[in-house]
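re: the backbone from monday

yeah here it is again, tokenized this time
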């Protein structure tokens, strides 16, 4: 079996590539950097430049499943130009893939599994969001995710099954949110954001990469919330990390207006509250390695 992965060299992509190879699955990947092109028996790179509409269509040769992870980070100041990049890095790339696939006469692609984000759900302390919850965030993140998912859903017009994983806060010692939270705590500068009551729906990187593989192998379609079964408050997350690092949280809570001054509109990422349910993937038979935050954090801190 062969898959095509976009974003294969990123945090999540690298883990999925490892799992594919462990399962005997060959990987093609797309990259915008010619320096990252490799060509081995089970791992072959292809160049693309989505902004220019360029793509090596050979990337789709004998591919059965596309795993779509590409997208510029949202954890960077949201200038007008960068907002455009955040959206286009998800929509233009997806559209180029679909158009390339559409031109092929004998396509073997039957399934696309795409990353998405829980940012599609509105900020709420009360709601418990399921995949079919109709509420939508009316801010920038809601716009990004809605356009992203709509672009992926267009693959259905080609007779391709579509799966969408709405990813929460990814915890890994290799990158993402955890090192940025843990580092200031390690040096005694950790603090809770706002009142700390905002819900954080998180997932361990190992569980997330395994979830992509589970959806691939079980041929599941539709939308899945890619979060652990037990969301926590920002305060609980912060204090759990501090406890595991044997540190105290001594600084006062960081007020929202202070981070808005520093980060601009992007500060909403730190204060947004989404309590998200993972029941659908659980009832499909998926088993989490890290169901609670203590187990997850324990696995990230070296002994």
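seq for it, each position gets an aa:
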């Amino acid at each position: 079996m062969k898959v095509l992965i976009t974003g294969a060299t990123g945090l999540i992509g690298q883990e999925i590539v490892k799992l594919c190879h462990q399962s005997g699955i060959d990987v093609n990947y797309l990259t915008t950097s010619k320096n990252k092109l490799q060509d081995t028996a089970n791992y072959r790179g292809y160049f693309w430049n989505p902004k220019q509409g360029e793509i090596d269509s050979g990337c789709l040769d004998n591919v059965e499943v596309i795993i779509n992870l590409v997208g510029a980070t949202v954890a960077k100041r949201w200038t007008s130009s960068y907002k455009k990049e955040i959206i286009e890095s998800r929509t233009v790339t997806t559209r180029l893939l679909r158009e390339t696939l559409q031109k092929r006469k004998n396509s073997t692609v039957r399934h696309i599994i795409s990353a998405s984000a829980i940012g599609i759900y509105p900020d709420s302390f009360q709601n418990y969001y399921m995949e079919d919850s109709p509420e939508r965030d009316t801010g920038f993140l809601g716009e990004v995710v809605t356009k992203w998912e709509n672009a992926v859903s267009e693959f259905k017009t080609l007779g391709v099954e579509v799966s969408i994983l709405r990813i929460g806060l990814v915890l890994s010692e290799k990158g993402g949110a955890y090192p940025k939270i843990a580092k200031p705590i390690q040096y005694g500068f950790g603090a809770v954001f706002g009142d700390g009551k905002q819900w954080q729906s998180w997932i361990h990187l190992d569980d997330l990469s395994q979830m992509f593989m589970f959806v691939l192998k079980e041929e599941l379609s539709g939308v899945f919330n890619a979060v652990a079964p037990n969301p926590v408050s920002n305060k609980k997350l912060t204090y759990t990390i501090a406890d595991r690092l044997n540190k105290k949280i001594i600084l006062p809570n960081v007020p929202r207006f202070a981070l808005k001054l520093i980060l601009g509109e992007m500060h909403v990422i730190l204060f947004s509250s989404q309590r998200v349910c993972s029941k659908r993937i659980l009832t499909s038979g998926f088993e989490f390695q890290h169901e609670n935050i203590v187990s997850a954090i324990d696995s990230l801190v070296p002994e």
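Residues 12 and 209 are 6 Å apart (CA to CA). The first strand starts at residue 2 and ends at 6.
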